[in-house]
Amino acid sequence: MDQTRDLTLANALLQGLREPALLCGPDGKIRLANDALAPLLPGAKPGSLLALCLRSPDILDAVQAVLKDAPRRAVRWHERVPVEQVFDIELASVPVETIGRCVLLTFHDLTSAQRVEKMREEFVANVSHELRTPLASLLGFVETLQGPARDDERARTQFLTIMGEQARRMSRLIDDLLSLSRIEQQEHLRPTAQVDLTGVVEQVCDALSTIARANRVTLKRMAPAQCIITGDRDELIRLTENLIENAIKYGSLPDQDSMVEITLTQSQGQTVLTVRDHGVGIAREHLPRLTERFYRANAGDSRAKGGTGLGLALVKHIAMRHRGRLEIASTPGDGASFSVIF
Ligand SMILES: Nc1ncnc2c1ncn2[C@@H]1O[C@H](COP(=O)(O)OP(=O)(O)OP(=O)(O)O)[C@@H](O)[C@H]1O
Ligand SMILES: [Mg+2]
Q1: Mean pLDDT across the stretch 3-23?
Q2: Which of 76, 109, 142 is the last residue of a domain?
């Protein structure tokens, strides 16, 4: 009777925890398991042996140690199936008068923290690398302007132009990074507005008409009069802009007229936006990596054209937030085609 009362109280406490937790008795059998534990260890039910549910020698050793005399233990637990997960398991001794010495196991999920940590490391390395070049060039010009070129009017004008470009480059990099992180943070929230993609394409083509002309590119549009999807207008503008801008920058041919085709189709609940160019195309080995942050197929060319390698990463995340996907196809020598399927 008393034992039931003890366990009822303990169970209420465990259920009140947000983290997965279980209470293991002196015989190595699970006495209690809270609901939060079920998705993680479906087999962990009161009455079953802990050793059969959690096949980790480290944890079982720690359980034995706490059952014997250790007050607390902490063990890191890596689970690889079905998905990779990492937990810190805290073990604490819980004397229950009617049962004996029990162990409380609480599971702290470190999975996202570790993923974030890995991304952070890569990210810091990339950003510093991207900022170092324009910064070094800016500092070089500042020194030249303070020293040898102090009184050279012509050099000053020329250097200030380059310095302006470098500063803009850094500022664009930071803008792109901020948008990327904002979109990522909201990725799980579905946009709700009704947006006319035809209007978006029109607006973007108008905005890019100057650089299209400069690259001798004709923007050919094929779209229904209206093409409504559920989305976020600003993000869809960014997505379209990145694709068309890339097609103009990398899909045009030097000293030659060329064409970029932008197609919108809508049928059976599926909307497809395709941007196709007729440039040099992209070698097969680059295709799977194009949407990685800072990845460029031809780094020198892209940098010369003011690219930071974040455009397609943005496109991919925007597409994902819209429950869409990006497909890239290219035949080297015959241009590339980027489709977003909503
Ligand atoms: N239409 C295309 N034809 C050939 N190569 C392309 C095309 N679109 C993209 N690429 C290649 O993919 C790379 C990544 O593109 P992405 O838009 O992510 O970066 P970027 O254009 O270099 O920089 P940003 O978009 O940030 O200004 C580009 O550097 C380029 O090498
Ligand atoms: Mg781009």
Answers
A1: 91
A2: 109
How far away, in angstroms, is 281 Cα from ligand 1 center?
Answer: 11
Report the chain's C-alpha Rg in angstroms. Answer: 29
pLDDT beyond 70 at 269: yes
Nearest alpha carbon to residue 11 among 46, 47, 39: 46
Pocket of ligand 1 (CB under 6 A): 176, 242, 246-247, 250-251, 277, 279, 282, 290, 296-298, 302, 307-312, 336
Pair (8, 91) in one structural domain: yes
CA distances from 309 to 13, 182, 271, 296 (A): 51, 17, 26, 6
Mean residue pLDDT across the chain = 90
Residues 175 and 201 in one domain: no
264 or 116: whose pLDDT is higher?
Answer: 264
HSE-up (13 A, CA, CB side) for residue 315 = 26
Q: Interior CA angle at 321 toward 319 and 322, to 5°?
A: 65
Query: What's the domain count of the chain?
Result: 3
Range of the structural domain that residue 216 is part of = 190-342
Residue 253's CATH number: 3.30.565.10
Q: Please give the number of the atom of ligand 1 that sits closest to the Cα of 275.
A: 1
Identify the helix (H) or strand (E) that includes residue 307: none
State the pLDDT at residue 129: 81
Q: Which of 157, 185, 213 is the last residue of a domain?
A: 185
In this structure, are strands 258-267 and 217-222 parallel, antiparallel, or unpaired?
A: parallel
16 CA distance to ligand 1 middle (Å): 50
The DSSP code for 37 is: G
